[in-house]
Design goal:
Strand 8 (about 170) and strand 9 (about 175-180) form a beta hairpin. This protein has a domain at about 90-240: Beta Barrel (Elongation Factor Tu (Ef-tu), domain 3). It has helices at about 10-15, 40-50, 55-60, 180-185, 225-235; strands spanning about 5-10, 30, 90-95, 105-115, 125-130, 145, 160-165, 170, 175-180, 195-200, 215-220. It is about 15% helix and about 25% strand. The chain is built from five helices and eleven strands. The strands form three sheets. It has a six-stranded antiparallel sheet, with helices on one face. The chain has a three-stranded antiparallel sheet with strand order 1-11-2, sandwiched between helices. It is of the alpha+beta class. It starts with a strand and ends in a 14-residue tail after the last helix. Bound molecules: flavin-adenine dinucleotide.
Length: about 250
Protein backbone atom coordinates (compact mmCIF):
# COMPACT_ATOMS: atom_id res chain seq x y z
CA UNK A 1 0.00 0.00 0.00
CA UNK A 2 1.25 3.48 -0.66
CA UNK A 3 0.17 7.07 -0.18
CA UNK A 4 1.65 10.19 -1.66
CA UNK A 5 0.72 13.81 -1.14
CA UNK A 6 2.25 16.57 -3.19
CA UNK A 7 1.64 20.23 -2.53
CA UNK A 8 2.61 22.31 -5.53
CA UNK A 9 3.55 25.90 -4.87
CA UNK A 10 1.17 28.57 -6.06
CA UNK A 11 3.83 31.17 -6.72
CA UNK A 12 7.52 31.41 -7.54
CA UNK A 13 8.12 32.72 -4.06
CA UNK A 14 7.02 29.42 -2.60
CA UNK A 15 8.39 27.29 -5.42
CA UNK A 16 11.50 26.37 -3.50
CA UNK A 17 9.75 24.82 -0.60
CA UNK A 18 6.52 23.10 -1.10
CA UNK A 19 6.88 19.53 -2.12
CA UNK A 20 5.98 17.05 0.54
CA UNK A 21 5.79 13.36 -0.01
CA UNK A 22 5.68 10.24 2.00
CA UNK A 23 5.17 6.60 1.44
CA UNK A 24 2.74 4.84 3.70
CA UNK A 25 1.11 1.47 3.32
CA UNK A 26 -2.35 1.84 1.21
CA UNK A 27 -5.66 1.12 -4.33
CA UNK A 28 -7.30 4.36 -4.80
CA UNK A 29 -6.39 7.30 -6.89
CA UNK A 30 -7.83 10.67 -5.99
CA UNK A 31 -7.58 13.40 -8.61
CA UNK A 32 -9.12 16.51 -7.16
CA UNK A 33 -10.09 18.91 -9.92
CA UNK A 34 -7.22 21.08 -8.75
CA UNK A 35 -5.02 18.59 -10.54
CA UNK A 36 -6.04 20.19 -13.83
CA UNK A 37 -3.79 23.09 -12.96
CA UNK A 38 -0.89 20.87 -12.04
CA UNK A 39 0.96 20.98 -15.35
CA UNK A 40 0.73 24.78 -15.42
CA UNK A 41 2.16 25.00 -11.93
CA UNK A 42 4.87 22.47 -12.70
CA UNK A 43 5.96 24.53 -15.74
CA UNK A 44 6.09 27.63 -13.63
CA UNK A 45 8.32 25.85 -11.14
CA UNK A 46 10.66 24.81 -13.94
CA UNK A 47 10.83 28.42 -15.13
CA UNK A 48 11.79 29.57 -11.67
CA UNK A 49 14.73 27.25 -11.44
CA UNK A 50 15.90 28.19 -14.94
CA UNK A 51 15.73 31.90 -14.17
CA UNK A 52 17.77 31.44 -11.05
CA UNK A 53 20.57 29.71 -12.95
CA UNK A 54 23.36 32.08 -14.01
CA UNK A 55 25.20 29.50 -16.15
CA UNK A 56 22.56 27.36 -17.94
CA UNK A 57 25.11 24.97 -19.50
CA UNK A 58 26.91 24.36 -16.22
CA UNK A 59 23.61 23.97 -14.45
CA UNK A 60 22.52 21.28 -16.90
CA UNK A 61 25.59 19.24 -15.99
CA UNK A 62 25.43 19.91 -12.25
CA UNK A 63 23.78 17.32 -9.99
CA UNK A 64 20.27 18.21 -8.94
CA UNK A 65 20.22 19.55 -5.41
CA UNK A 66 17.49 18.34 -3.12
CA UNK A 67 15.22 21.22 -2.13
CA UNK A 68 14.77 21.66 1.58
CA UNK A 69 11.28 21.89 2.97
CA UNK A 70 10.71 24.84 5.24
CA UNK A 71 10.81 23.85 8.87
CA UNK A 72 8.33 26.63 9.62
CA UNK A 73 5.62 24.25 8.47
CA UNK A 74 6.53 22.03 11.38
CA UNK A 75 6.02 24.66 14.07
CA UNK A 76 3.85 23.47 16.91
CA UNK A 77 3.52 19.96 15.58
CA UNK A 78 3.70 17.44 18.43
CA UNK A 79 5.41 14.10 17.92
CA UNK A 80 5.93 11.08 20.17
CA UNK A 81 4.04 12.43 23.16
CA UNK A 82 3.18 8.82 23.96
CA UNK A 83 5.73 6.05 23.58
CA UNK A 84 5.40 2.24 23.72
CA UNK A 85 6.44 2.00 27.38
CA UNK A 86 3.77 4.45 28.45
CA UNK A 87 1.11 4.50 25.78
CA UNK A 88 -2.08 6.52 26.00
CA UNK A 89 -5.00 4.23 26.76
CA UNK A 90 -8.06 5.30 24.81
CA UNK A 91 -11.39 3.63 24.22
CA UNK A 92 -13.03 2.46 21.07
CA UNK A 93 -16.15 4.58 20.61
CA UNK A 94 -17.23 3.25 17.24
CA UNK A 95 -16.06 0.59 14.78
CA UNK A 96 -17.85 0.15 11.46
CA UNK A 97 -17.11 -2.02 8.49
CA UNK A 98 -16.96 0.26 5.45
CA UNK A 99 -16.49 -2.33 2.71
CA UNK A 100 -19.37 -4.30 1.22
CA UNK A 101 -19.94 -8.02 1.62
CA UNK A 102 -18.62 -8.74 -1.87
CA UNK A 103 -15.53 -6.55 -1.59
CA UNK A 104 -12.15 -8.23 -1.74
CA UNK A 105 -11.02 -7.79 1.85
CA UNK A 106 -12.42 -5.96 4.80
CA UNK A 107 -11.81 -2.39 5.88
CA UNK A 108 -13.10 -0.76 9.05
CA UNK A 109 -13.47 2.82 10.20
CA UNK A 110 -12.94 3.27 13.91
CA UNK A 111 -12.99 6.17 16.38
CA UNK A 112 -11.02 6.22 19.64
CA UNK A 113 -11.38 8.59 22.57
CA UNK A 114 -8.31 10.73 23.34
CA UNK A 115 -9.77 13.35 25.68
CA UNK A 116 -7.61 15.78 23.71
CA UNK A 117 -4.42 14.15 25.01
CA UNK A 118 -3.11 13.27 21.54
CA UNK A 119 -2.71 16.62 19.81
CA UNK A 120 -2.32 15.48 16.21
CA UNK A 121 -2.40 17.26 12.87
CA UNK A 122 -3.86 16.06 9.58
CA UNK A 123 -1.22 13.91 7.88
CA UNK A 124 0.22 12.37 11.04
CA UNK A 125 -0.04 8.76 12.19
CA UNK A 126 -0.47 7.01 15.51
CA UNK A 127 0.95 3.74 16.76
CA UNK A 128 -1.28 1.00 18.14
CA UNK A 129 -0.11 -1.82 20.40
CA UNK A 130 -2.37 -4.85 20.11
CA UNK A 131 -3.34 -6.65 23.30
CA UNK A 132 -1.59 -9.94 24.02
CA UNK A 133 1.94 -11.21 23.47
CA UNK A 134 4.06 -12.33 20.55
CA UNK A 135 5.47 -15.85 20.13
CA UNK A 136 8.33 -14.93 22.48
CA UNK A 137 6.01 -13.91 25.26
CA UNK A 138 6.76 -10.21 24.77
CA UNK A 139 4.22 -7.46 24.22
CA UNK A 140 3.38 -6.94 20.56
CA UNK A 141 5.32 -4.26 18.74
CA UNK A 142 3.39 -1.21 17.72
CA UNK A 143 2.00 -0.84 14.20
CA UNK A 144 1.58 2.56 12.59
CA UNK A 145 -1.76 3.76 11.21
CA UNK A 146 -2.45 6.98 9.34
CA UNK A 147 -4.90 9.24 11.09
CA UNK A 148 -8.12 9.44 9.09
CA UNK A 149 -9.82 12.26 11.02
CA UNK A 150 -9.09 15.97 10.96
CA UNK A 151 -7.47 17.49 14.03
CA UNK A 152 -10.97 18.24 15.34
CA UNK A 153 -11.89 14.56 15.19
CA UNK A 154 -15.02 13.03 13.73
CA UNK A 155 -17.15 14.49 16.55
CA UNK A 156 -15.68 18.00 16.19
CA UNK A 157 -14.50 18.27 19.81
CA UNK A 158 -10.77 17.49 19.37
CA UNK A 159 -11.24 14.53 21.70
CA UNK A 160 -11.12 11.64 19.27
CA UNK A 161 -8.89 10.11 16.64
CA UNK A 162 -10.07 7.89 13.76
CA UNK A 163 -8.42 5.20 11.68
CA UNK A 164 -9.20 3.31 8.49
CA UNK A 165 -7.82 -0.22 8.83
CA UNK A 166 -7.69 -3.14 6.43
CA UNK A 167 -7.88 -6.60 7.99
CA UNK A 168 -4.76 -8.53 6.97
CA UNK A 169 -5.48 -12.20 6.25
CA UNK A 170 -3.32 -14.32 3.94
CA UNK A 171 -2.43 -17.93 3.27
CA UNK A 172 1.21 -18.80 3.87
CA UNK A 173 3.39 -21.24 1.93
CA UNK A 174 2.29 -24.08 4.22
CA UNK A 175 -1.32 -23.40 3.25
CA UNK A 176 -2.23 -21.99 6.65
CA UNK A 177 -4.46 -18.96 6.99
CA UNK A 178 -2.54 -16.26 8.87
CA UNK A 179 -4.18 -13.25 10.48
CA UNK A 180 -2.24 -10.03 10.94
CA UNK A 181 -1.86 -9.26 14.62
CA UNK A 182 -2.78 -5.61 14.94
CA UNK A 183 -5.16 -5.16 12.01
CA UNK A 184 -7.29 -8.04 13.27
CA UNK A 185 -7.10 -6.71 16.83
CA UNK A 186 -8.37 -3.35 15.57
CA UNK A 187 -11.03 -4.63 13.17
CA UNK A 188 -12.43 -6.83 15.96
CA UNK A 189 -12.49 -4.03 18.59
CA UNK A 190 -15.85 -3.51 20.18
CA UNK A 191 -17.09 -0.12 21.43
CA UNK A 192 -15.91 0.37 25.02
CA UNK A 193 -12.73 -1.69 24.58
CA UNK A 194 -9.39 -0.15 25.53
CA UNK A 195 -6.71 0.56 22.95
CA UNK A 196 -3.06 1.45 23.57
CA UNK A 197 -1.97 4.37 21.43
CA UNK A 198 1.46 5.94 20.81
CA UNK A 199 2.51 9.04 18.95
CA UNK A 200 1.44 11.09 17.17
CA UNK A 201 4.22 10.63 14.60
CA UNK A 202 5.27 12.06 11.26
CA UNK A 203 5.79 15.53 9.82
CA UNK A 204 6.22 14.51 6.19
CA UNK A 205 2.62 14.67 5.05
CA UNK A 206 1.27 17.71 6.82
CA UNK A 207 -1.10 19.97 4.91
CA UNK A 208 0.68 22.89 3.22
CA UNK A 209 0.61 26.25 4.96
CA UNK A 210 0.28 28.10 1.64
CA UNK A 211 -3.49 28.75 1.35
CA UNK A 212 -3.17 28.81 -2.47
CA UNK A 213 -1.21 25.58 -2.75
CA UNK A 214 -2.41 22.92 -5.14
CA UNK A 215 -2.64 19.55 -3.42
CA UNK A 216 -2.41 16.33 -5.39
CA UNK A 217 -3.48 13.28 -3.42
CA UNK A 218 -2.52 9.81 -4.54
CA UNK A 219 -3.32 6.83 -2.37
CA UNK A 220 -4.02 3.14 -2.71
CA UNK A 221 -6.23 1.10 -0.40
CA UNK A 222 -6.20 2.48 3.11
CA UNK A 223 -3.66 4.98 1.77
CA UNK A 224 -6.66 7.27 1.43
CA UNK A 225 -6.87 7.50 5.22
CA UNK A 226 -4.77 10.66 5.60
CA UNK A 227 -6.60 12.25 2.67
CA UNK A 228 -9.91 11.73 4.43
CA UNK A 229 -8.49 13.98 7.15
CA UNK A 230 -7.43 16.57 4.53
CA UNK A 231 -10.78 16.50 2.70
CA UNK A 232 -12.72 16.68 5.94
CA UNK A 233 -10.78 19.77 6.97
CA UNK A 234 -10.95 21.43 3.54
CA UNK A 235 -14.57 20.73 2.59
CA UNK A 236 -16.52 19.90 5.73
CA UNK A 237 -15.09 22.14 8.43
CA UNK A 238 -14.98 25.89 8.05
CA UNK A 239 -11.42 27.13 8.45
CA UNK A 240 -10.29 30.61 7.50
CA UNK A 241 -7.00 29.28 6.17
CA UNK A 242 -8.44 26.39 4.14
CA UNK A 243 -10.99 27.61 1.64
CA UNK A 244 -11.63 25.93 -1.68
CA UNK A 245 -12.00 28.18 -4.70
CA UNK A 246 -15.00 27.50 -6.89
CA UNK A 247 -12.89 26.50 -9.93
CA UNK A 248 -11.66 23.60 -7.86
CA UNK A 249 -15.18 22.28 -7.52
CA UNK A 250 -15.95 22.17 -11.26
C1 LIG B 1 3.19 5.09 8.18
C2 LIG B 1 2.27 3.92 8.07
C3 LIG B 1 0.91 4.15 7.99
C4 LIG B 1 0.04 3.08 7.87
N1 LIG B 1 -1.30 3.34 7.79
C5 LIG B 1 -2.16 2.31 7.67
C6 LIG B 1 -3.56 2.58 7.59
O1 LIG B 1 -4.01 3.73 7.62
N2 LIG B 1 -4.39 1.51 7.50
C7 LIG B 1 -3.94 0.21 7.45
O2 LIG B 1 -4.76 -0.72 7.36
N3 LIG B 1 -2.61 -0.06 7.52
C8 LIG B 1 -1.72 0.94 7.65
N4 LIG B 1 -0.39 0.67 7.76
C9 LIG B 1 0.05 -0.74 7.83
C10 LIG B 1 0.01 -1.21 9.30
O3 LIG B 1 1.03 -0.56 10.02
C11 LIG B 1 0.25 -2.72 9.47
O4 LIG B 1 1.45 -3.04 8.80
C12 LIG B 1 -0.86 -3.58 8.92
O5 LIG B 1 -2.09 -3.31 9.58
C13 LIG B 1 -0.52 -5.07 9.16
O6 LIG B 1 -0.25 -5.25 10.52
P1 LIG B 1 -0.69 -6.57 11.27
O7 LIG B 1 -0.21 -6.50 12.65
O8 LIG B 1 -2.15 -6.86 11.05
O9 LIG B 1 0.09 -7.70 10.45
P2 LIG B 1 1.38 -8.48 11.00
O10 LIG B 1 1.01 -9.47 12.03
O11 LIG B 1 2.42 -7.49 11.34
O12 LIG B 1 1.79 -9.24 9.72
C14 LIG B 1 2.35 -8.53 8.62
C15 LIG B 1 3.36 -9.44 8.01
O13 LIG B 1 2.68 -10.56 7.42
C16 LIG B 1 3.39 -10.96 6.27
N5 LIG B 1 2.46 -10.94 5.12
C17 LIG B 1 1.52 -10.03 4.87
N6 LIG B 1 0.83 -10.34 3.73
C18 LIG B 1 1.40 -11.48 3.28
C19 LIG B 1 1.15 -12.31 2.15
N7 LIG B 1 0.17 -12.01 1.27
N8 LIG B 1 1.92 -13.41 1.98
C20 LIG B 1 2.89 -13.70 2.89
N9 LIG B 1 3.17 -12.95 3.97
C21 LIG B 1 2.43 -11.87 4.17
C22 LIG B 1 4.54 -10.02 6.08
O14 LIG B 1 5.67 -10.61 6.64
C23 LIG B 1 4.14 -8.81 6.87
O15 LIG B 1 5.21 -8.11 7.35
C24 LIG B 1 0.52 1.73 7.85
C25 LIG B 1 1.90 1.51 7.94
C26 LIG B 1 2.76 2.59 8.03
C27 LIG B 1 4.22 2.33 8.09
Amino acid sequence: MAALAAALPSSPATAKAAVSSSVAPPCFLAYPSRLRNASRVAVRTAQVSTAETAEPAAAAAAPVKEKKISKKQDEGVVTNKYRPKEPYVGRCLLNTRITGDNAPGETWHMVFSTEGEIPYREGQSIGVIADGEDKNGKPHKLRLYSIASSALGDFGDSKTVSLCVKRLVYTNDAGEVVKGVCSNFLCDLKPGAEVKITGPVGKEMLMPKDPNATIIMLGTGTGIAPFRSFLWKIFFEEHEDYKVSTNCLN
